[in-house]
Amino acid sequence: MVAVSDGPGPAPAADRASAALPVLSVALVSMMQEVRAHSGAVYLLRPEERVLEMTVHAGMPRAFAAPWERVGLSAPIPVADAARERRLVWVGGEEAMARRYPRIAVVLPYPFALAALPVATERQVYGAVFVTWPGAHPPELSDGERDQLWAACDRLALRLERAAQEDRPLALDTAEVVATPVAGVADTLGSVEAARMVSRLPYGLVSMDLHGRIAFVNAAAAELLGRPAGELLGTLPWVSVPWLNDPMYEDRYRGALLSQQVTSFVALRPPSEWLSFRMYPSTTGLSMRITRARAVAEIARGAPQAGASPSRLVTISQVLGLAAALTEAAGVQDVVQLVWDEVAAAVGSQAMVILGTQGGRLHVLGHRGYPDPHTVERFHGLPLSERTPGTHALNSGVPAFFDSQEELERLYPGRHATPDGFAAWAYLPLIASGRPVGTCVLAYAEPHMFPADERAVLTSLGGLIAQALERAQLYDAKHRLAHGLQQALLPNSLAPPPGIEAAARYLPATHGMDIGGDFYDLVPSLPLTAAVIGDVQGHNVTAAGLMGQIRTGVRAYTTVGQAPHEVMSSTNRLLIDLGTELFASCLYLRLDPARGQAVMARAGHPPPLLRRPDGRVRVLDLAGGPLLGIDTAAVYPTTEVSLTPGSVLVLYTDGLVEAPGIDIEDSLVGLGGLLSEIGDQPLDQLADELVQHSAAARDRMDDVAVLLLRACDRT
């Protein structure tokens, strides 16, 4: 490793261009040594892309972190969290990783601890660092380790700030830091004698570097593996030895290096000989002992079959990590954002667009990274019969890769009429359930070669994106249906009588179908107006349908002139006659603004709040009857309440005040205090404030309906 001098004196231009790399390397190795970490990496932030890019790494093969070489700043992984939130992120082991960062745990399910910190000054974030320890590290980071990590990151941030002020460009070519080898036994034993000693051992010995390449193999190991030593040196055992070509064996090697724990496995050498492999890891590589296995019959029952198809580590890691990310997408726009944050960042794409199809035409579902959005939006509504790369990929189901603009324009001469400023493209058909659902276009700022393995990865990712997009489209369709049904069942507007102001809010539960059984209404009838609020059990289509029937019944009974207690009794019998197993709470009142009064009847509903003009708030503990739909003979007594000008009635459903862990009495006290304080605001503003400040409404385990009524002068 090249040392970096802090001494004065100008550096040649060529040296300044790459000066950042030794700075980062020295800082990373020094940090790892101070806290006795065994691997780590430094990421630099590319502000124009909001992407963190791994610049140097140490103590592990680069392939281990391949899915996270380039990550979006908003990605839910430790280095992104550390940079975005300017905090230390500590993950104390395998269980903590699975709980907090399941995407990483899926790809690297091994016992290790990790710390990530921002590299930042008070004015700017330059990137982030992570370091890892073996699984034997204590579950908590010590104060000393914490202080040393922060101090190292602060020193690095100051050096990067100085480089920026001096206009010294940072080299972004990724590099691996080679750890300094520890002193070997050759100093005392002699290399020739050491080789003789190892050659005489009855079992196989293999030395492997951090990348899994064989650096030494003794005669016994070569015999057991069935290959000459010369053909094994410099190769990966699972590549050069056909019967070790199984992902499980490569996984054991990864697990040994990351956990720094002794790891073993058995493998069948055809036709019937079982061998035992035991790996002893260190920070510079690992040593592997090979012996003939015992208890062959017992081992055979749990061993994998030889001859399994080969698997590339990077491909598996990328697909697993990005698949985990895409499972979190709910709606179509969630898919668009996740593809941009996770997929585009991982493959180095600078722009992305997802195209869908509807009615035989292309639809732009979402795009990111295009300097001129109109370039993309021109494709919206384009017939699928048009000859474009996007329509061809969608119609044929075959991906298309264009290394340069010349290649694209040669195959699609009309493409030059709509330049997008990019130089290479990948068109991935999105096929789900055997049918095309869209096309994902990845654009690159520079000409970009697409080798076979990268095309395979991108094609696989297209299938994952397609499945996520299909689920998202179904979710959005269900959401639109639910929203439309709910809007149809609730009043479009409120028409209060003279002397009354009214405002209402409805929020569906966040769990379920975005639809529920809460309802409110204002029913104009001569000579008085009625108001009603209620709550049918559940937040699903059944509850919503029943709510619509109850609301219609209340309107009908009010229109024919029934008194409040009669309306409640009639609605109760209606619900019982419908034969449903659901119950409903309800609060009904007849408003008489001319006399400044309201007559109320209650069926198991939360009590309303009344704010007087002087700001005092009272919970109206009204007499009432049971829930609707329980007892045919139930009686619902009425209560008369004074409603002087300036008074505000707050009618609500229990979703506003009830939630797990929240005491309803405390919730009512808090609601009353807020109403007393801000009750003079305009009614629409007051309704928004009451909903926003309710902890239960924020969690939304249940639907929330609020109806506010204010008495005012009839003039």
UniProtKB/TrEMBL annotation:
Q: Which residues form the PAS domain?
A: 196-234
PROSITE patterns assigned: PAS
Q: What is its EC number?
A: 3.1.3.16
* Gene3D superfamilies (alphabetical): 3.30.450.40, PAS domain (3.30.450.20), PPM-type phosphatase domain (3.60.40.10)
Q: What does this protein do?
A: Primarily acts as an independent SigF regulator that is sensitive to the osmosensory signal, mediating the cross talk of PknD with the SigF regulon. Possesses both phosphatase and kinase activities. The kinase domain functions as a classic anti-sigma factor-like kinase to phosphorylate the anti-anti-sigma factor domain at the canonical regulatory site, and the phosphatase domain antagonizes this activity.
EC main class here is hydrolase
Q: Does the keyword Phosphoprotein apply?
A: yes
Q: Which UniProt keywords apply?
A: ATP-binding, Hydrolase, Kinase, Magnesium, Manganese, Metal-binding, Nucleotide-binding, Phosphoprotein, Protein phosphatase, Transferase
| Lineage of origin | Bacteria, Bacillati, Actinomycetota, Actinomycetes, Kitasatosporales
What's an example of a GO molecular-function annotation for this chain? metal ion binding
Which catalytic reaction applies to this protein?
O-phospho-L-seryl-[protein] + H2O = L-seryl-[protein] + phosphate
SMART domains per record: GAF, PP2C_SIG
The protein here is known as protein-serine/threonine phosphatase
Q: Which Pfam families match?
A: GAF_2, SpoIIE
Which superkingdom, per the lineage? Bacteria
